[in-house]
Design brief:
Length: about 350
Amino acid sequence: MKKTSTRLADGRELIYYDSRDDVVRDAVDRRPLDPTVTTSEIRRDPLLGDAIAVASHRQGRTYHPPADECPLCPSQGERLSEVPDSSYDVVVFENRFPSLAGDAGRCEVVCFTSDHDKSFADLSEEQAGLVLEAWTDRTAELSHLDSVEQVFCFENRGAEIGVTLGHPHGQIYGYPFTTPRTALMLRSAAQHKEQTGGRNLFADVVEKEIEDGSRIVLEGEHWVAFVPYAAHWPYEVHLYPKRQVPDLLALDDAARTEFPKIYLELLRRFDRIFGEDQPVTPYIAAWHQAPFGSLDEFEGVTRDDFALHLELFTIRRTSGKLKFLAGSESGMSVFINDVPPESAAERLREVASK
């Protein structure tokens, strides 16, 4: 992998990740951009104890542009985009309309391919491996920022999810705090450790799923994917490396090598859940990594007690119907799942690639 860092016209950082070492990236951003102005603010909810980001400057962000005006495609002639070069393998840049910025963290965009009409599932194993390297590198870089305590790599895919740019891309958030969802996991891990005389919660969950087998979707030598026992979403898969590690940085070479094959197969199965003649499946793919900040509030738990894993889920519950977060989910955080996890796992096994 070759990494080339440059600056856009408004001062934002952009990084090219190339599979070839002989690629030269010296294109200059020719757009007359003013310096980026952000108004991100973190506010804490005194009742729930969590935090929200107030980012009023995002109201003017790009919204469903025509394909020939996509800001994530490479620049061509006088059609200038966020990527100055006329081609790229994988590129990462600071978001022009970030939810988090300055002392309130950082937001980046990850473009998986220059091909506007592809999706992640269409990538080759080599391309998917390069994306993994980019995620890993950005996790390492962001972890050193004083304003970042947790790094979150994720992809929103599909208009139903709320995606406003059709180009295949994801995002990376550097939060200035440990997120509420991760905090819940860490508290559960601490409680489990105390109650079981030091056993690891994540290891026990993975071991139990493998032993049961009914919810296993896909298993390789170094990764295992399963529908969780208490899945929140109609079709939800958790992907774990079999050797427990706290973050992407700690993955060994064997796990990195196998990941593209496993992950691409999962994504391709997701697109076949509802039938070959149905639209592509909207989904969220979310990497869960241990925070880099202090874990003192979670007594008895260290970063090594956390387990890196990816959660992949869709809001589509059946053909043509979405799962909405209504009263129970939005008002009380109590999910009601219309699809039994065992049935979801069975369907995801049925649509395996031939």
